[in-house]
UniProtKB/TrEMBL annotation:
<keyword id="KW-0472">Membrane</keyword>
<dbReference type="Pfam" id="PF12770">
    <property type="entry name" value="CHAT"/>
</dbReference>
<keyword id="KW-0812">Transmembrane</keyword>
<dbReference type="InterPro" id="IPR024983">
    <property type="entry name" value="CHAT_dom"/>
</dbReference>
<dbReference type="InterPro" id="IPR011990">
    <property type="entry name" value="TPR-like_helical_dom_sf"/>
</dbReference>
<keyword id="KW-1133">Transmembrane helix</keyword>
<protein>
    <submittedName>
        <fullName>CHAT domain-containing protein</fullName>
    </submittedName>
</protein>
<feature type="domain" description="CHAT">
    <location>
        <begin position="565"/>
        <end position="821"/>
    </location>
</feature>
<feature type="transmembrane region" description="Helical">
    <location>
        <begin position="833"/>
        <end position="851"/>
    </location>
</feature>
Amino acid sequence: MKKLSLIFFLIYGTTFSQNLEEAIYAAAETFINNKNNASLKLLSTHEAQFKKQVKSKDEQLALVFLQCHKGFYLEKNSQLKDAITTFENALNRFKTNELSKFSDFDIIESCFIPLGNLYTKTGDYTNAENIIKQYIFLAEKSNHTKHQASGIINLSILYKTLEKYETVLKLTSGYLNKEDINRYQKQKVAQLRIDSQIALNKINSVKDIPKTIHNNAYSRFRSTYILQLQNGNYKEALQAFNNAKTHISQDSLSRRKLAKLYLEEAQLYKLLNKLKETKNSLNLALKTLLPNIKPTEFPNKNSLYAENTFIDIFDFYATLQEDYKSALHCYNLSFYVSQLLESNWTSQENKISNQATNRIRSEKCIDIIFDVYQNTKNDTLLFTAFQYAELNKSGVLKEKATKKTLLSQYPNDSLLLKEAYLLKEQEKITNRLINEQLGNSQASIITTLSSDLNAVSIKLKTLKEVITKKYPELNNTNFSVDDIQHKLIKDEAVLIEYFYGQKNIYQFIIDDNRINLNKINLNETTQKCIIDFIHLFDEPSIINDNINTFTTLALTLYNTLNFGKTAAYKNTIIIPDGLLNFIPFEALLTEKTNTKNFSKMPFVVQKQHVIYNTSAAFYIKDKKVENNTNKLLGFFPVFEKTKNSLIYSIDEANAIKEEMHSNLFLKNKATKETFIKNSPDYSILHLSTHANSGNASISASIAFFKETMFLNELYSLNLNANLVVLSACETGVGKRFKGEGAMSIARGFQYAGAQNVLFSLWQINDLSTSQIMQSFYKHYSDNLSANIANQQSKIDYLKDDSISNIKKSPYYWGAFVYYGQLTQPANVNNSKLIYGLIGLLIVLIVLFLLLRIKKPYGKNTTGVSK
């Protein structure tokens, strides 16, 4: 150590008097020749000094060289987060200083490729895709076939991880027989194709494995192992696995790859019921990642780092535990590592995908607790189960809401302002990138946008670390059962939360003094009942043509979902999940009925105020309304003289104008630009227009006059609305993700800052919607309670004698659901009456005084005039 310090002293003792570029290269070479943690520490110290000194392009390039070698060492030693930061810094330095114009330094090999692989390893798939596509474009531009092939291979590995096997086959199709790529790359392409074909059941037998890999023993045995494993031939799979192992040098594997190898081995032994061998291999996997751990010791959180192999290891350990506390402890370690990984991500799409994976683990934890509770009746376990249900529910929305709240508390904090700006930029660039890709734009444009998106991501990560240290309360999102129950007592309400799992639906019912946990078996009958009920609302005629089917399903689902257990409460908070997000609970029936008269049916809406929410955390949060003027901004494009004309939208606008202090934009004035400009200044936003739920490739959207706003553009807005009313089709429908719900227009408004949202679950009728909205605003102007106005507008609709029975089908009134706060009526009518009486009294007093003054003055005048 002293000798190494002396070397650095001799090199850097005269740094300021010698060439800085040479000093940087010398530092890098010294490290390269003697790589260990001590030399890394010294290198990092001097790197910090160099960053402050470098100016010329030569010096910047030297520092890029140093950082790339540092990054390689960090990656090899499983310090993945630090490796990513180092490579990001090097790449940003290379781009900012335009060093590609100055040097032929191979930035693809030295930085792009390892950074893309690191993003993939740490689950940051959005950045991985952006980086890999960038260097594929650069390689194509320079006609560098080897780098092109590397990009295609690494992009295919990413898509294979995401189980996009058809995309892998499409990507690699032109590279299998390409002459100017090396042998290793050809072998890798062949392996990726075979793995994908096996996953897609395009290869079902060992004899069908293409001969392209027969010259490579490892690949041949590896493919055989995967195929036998998939076919359930575990003994044959183990034999092929062991054969493959003999053809690789374990010394050449990174710790990560070696740990994964031991993990695979453990999983095979488990399938063969060889418990001793299973534990031995699993312990080796953990020991490989944590060399200093004792054989009989289980790691604590402080020894873990952001490495997704840990998650697989701890999830596996959990299945081997005999007592429930140990099993939950293992799962909690997996959740912790997942949080470590996610802390380094900025893309909400990436976080949402991770939530879906975590929910599988949440369900296993709830399964364990439910079984233990059946035996112990220990009520404290129930809230623990509830916390697992909440753990990955609307996590991205909760994070965004927390950031917005923090910024409202510290509106002048430059760090928070910069983060808010960058988050908006991230969504704007994402929206442009999606549109350009759908439009088949030039690769150069898409590459530039991908690069910009990656640059914003890096800035956000750097900011996040500083902000988290400054505001540690950001990580404190915990709440207790007492917090929920105090709010429920205040609201005179009950909360019912569903967790829609793979095997069961768990139902939590929390009232003012206890928690109940029910398990609903998600068998074929239950699933069919839910799906069939949802599809009743696909077309207006379905219910009217099959009224008996509707009443049967509506009551069956009411009972299946145990909704009757909330019947004693006037106010019901529902936190749906999975397919239940698309159920209009108000349209369920509380008892059997033979009537075909919809107005006489025992709908839930007749008896209960139903308020939805995405998470219990949102329910208990006291939401601050920054703009509480109750001034309404409305948009009514109408789309005159088109097949999409909304002629009754005008009636809707006129009714709103009568009831509310409003600023309405109709027809050609209802533009997207006007909305973006004005929407942050209003407490109520009303959009009467067309919307689309999107599909697998196109996101949800909402229409303005001659323009469309897509979801990511909506994400980039900063709204302060207390209430958003979306009088349009399918505004609550979109691509569904477990935990986060539908990627719908309604969610877009929630993400942008709307506190409460009223939106639709299916394609709505223009006339009936206009009637309901007129009634909604009449009641809202009377009591300033959106939840009561929503319920009452539906009841009014059912009671309206001018509406035919056919049009009273729940298809016409049941689509609108209210997500937000439970608001008690403000008794505006009483206030209006009081104010009116006060006004009348003032007038009478004034008249009385005038008469008193007038009489003596008149007598005196008369007298004078006489």
